[in-house]
Write a structure and sequence with these properties.
There is one protein chain. With 410 residues, this protein is an alpha+beta fold. It folds into two domains: 181 residues, Alpha-Beta Complex (endopeptidase fold (from Nostoc punctiforme)); 203 residues, no CATH class. The chain is 20% helix and 32% strand. The strands form seven sheets. A seven-stranded mixed beta sheet has the order 1-25-24-23-22-26-21. The protein has a five-stranded antiparallel beta sheet with strand order 10-9-8-4-11. It has a four-stranded antiparallel beta sheet with strand order 14-13-17-16, with no helix packed on it. Strand 8 and strand 9 form a beta hairpin. The longest helix is centred in the N-terminal third of the chain and has 12 residues. 42% of the residues are buried.
Length: 410
């Protein structure tokens, strides 16, 4: 099955070379060392957990409250209505009455892929009308070797409220090796090596096999490398891990050329959509994680959420509300630089280019509206695809192009 939704699907729209040929001189020369501080400053949502200094209990409590999702996002838990008692028990599990100041003496490193949650629970939270694939208590997935500042334990000690490099939330204590020294954590983080250019690969670790995704920095390929081990008491010691198989990797960090960009962006086609990187079957990608992973492979640290990615980057084209489809298409045709993010409320895409005036993007998304017998229908997608920005044209919500707010550059 080709993962292309376009009137030009007969063309090789899933071929990196097809799109690279359209951008031979159009990508900006970008240096992560220059760009990343600007992305962090503009978004306020990218940081180094190992540099977090002392933090008062009131600040930790505020972050815990901010990490909680709206009440209607967890009206059901694991598919059944959530009663008042159960909801109150989950809120109480946050242990708010026992928050203590953070004294810059408790850090951690993930020993496997794990989840960062809105509450200290693995129960799946959904709105009443949600379809099966959503878990709205899921903030994001954390890759192995993710550094954390561990701010506060849950009441049962089974979870930590943690500051990750791009998010805050609850992580299972059993997935984290802890240390009082930020330096001991930093020594295990790879500073060089190769980045994964495949959508998914696996590490063999002392804790078992665990998946890793596009853009993961690996200190070695084909041989063992130092890796954190969680001791019986939860502490940190050093073991070894290795990448299995022969997945495609690139030197860290490759130049952001058209060829390299699309060779990283297009292999994930067909990977499942997953809110917060999670599906009922395992790893997935939502729209912003897909974009984040692509740029991570080149050393760029974008924020995690779509809205913050668009806040962190610079608008090159803006659209007025109600601006017609044709006028928007003409504006976008004038774009001469890239790479470009296509920003709209709640969604972000990576711009590919145009084919005979029809603009295209690669993105991970759930569904779109299509005209149908005088009305409209919902067409499920639920994966990473190349699509025309004409999708949705003629429906009440408008086309993807008609819903854009801006086109942004790093």
């Amino acid at each position: 099955m080709r993962h292309v939704i376009s009137p030009f699907a007969g063309l090789p729209l899933d071929d990196p070379e097809f799109w690279a040929s359209k951008w031979r001189s159009g990508l900006k020369t970008l240096d992560p060392a220059t760009v990343n501080p600007r992305l962090a400053a503009r978004s306020g949502a990218v940081w180094d957990p190992l540099e977090l200094g002392p933090l008062p209990a009131a600040g930790i409590r505020r972050w815990i409250e901010e990490a909680l999702v709206p009440d209607d996002w967890w009206q059901t838990l694991d598919g059944r209505p959530a009663g008042s008692e159960e909801r109150q028990a989950l809120l109480a599990a946050r242990n708010l009455e026992n928050i203590r100041d953070f004294r810059a003496n408790r850090y951690g490193l993930t020993v496997r892929r794990t989840n960062l949650r809105a509450l200290p629970t693995n129960l799946r939270g959904q709105k009443l009308q949600d379809e099966e694939g959503f878990d709205r208590l899921q903030h994001t997935a954390l890759e192995p070797l993710t550094p954390l500042a561990l701010l506060h334990p849950s009441r049962d000690g089974g979870w930590w409220f943690a500051l990750a490099p791009d998010y805050r939330g609850w992580v299972r204590a059993g997935d984290v090796a802890t240390s009082s020294s930020a330096q001991s954590i930093a020594e295990l983080l790879p500073g060089s090596g190769r980045v994964l250019a495949e959508p998914l690969a696996e590490l063999e670790t002392p804790a078992g096999t665990t998946p890793v995704e596009t853009g993961t920095l690996l200190p070695a390929v084909g041989e063992p490398f130092p890796f954190p081990v969680r001791t019986a008491s939860g502490g940190l010691r050093t073991g070894q891990a290795r990448l299995t198989g022969r997945p495609r990797t690139l030197p860290a960090f490759p130049e952001l050329t058209p060829e390299n960009l699309f060779r990283v962006a297009l292999p994930p086609l067909g990977q499942p959509y997953g809110w917060g990187d999670l599906t009922p079957q395992g790893p997935g990608r939502d729209c912003s994680r897909f974009v984040q992973d692509v740029f991570k492979a080149f050393g760029f640290r974008l924020p995690r959420d779509a809205s913050r990615q668009c806040a962190a980057t610079e608008p090159a084209i803006t659209f007025d509300p109600g601006e017609p489809h044709e006028a928007r298409a003409a504006k976008l045709a004038g774009l001469r630089q890239g790479p470009a993010l296509l920003c709209m409320p709640g969604h972000v895409m990576l711009y590919l280019g145009e084919v005979e005036g029809c603009h295209h993007a690669v993105h991970s998304f759930w569904a779109y509206k299509s005209p149908d017998a005088g009305g409209e229908k919902t067409v499920p997608v639920r994966r990473v695809v190349v699509s025309s920005l004409d999708l949705g044209r003629g429906t009440s919500g408008g086309s993807l192009l008609e819903r854009l707010g801006s086109v942004n550059l790093l």
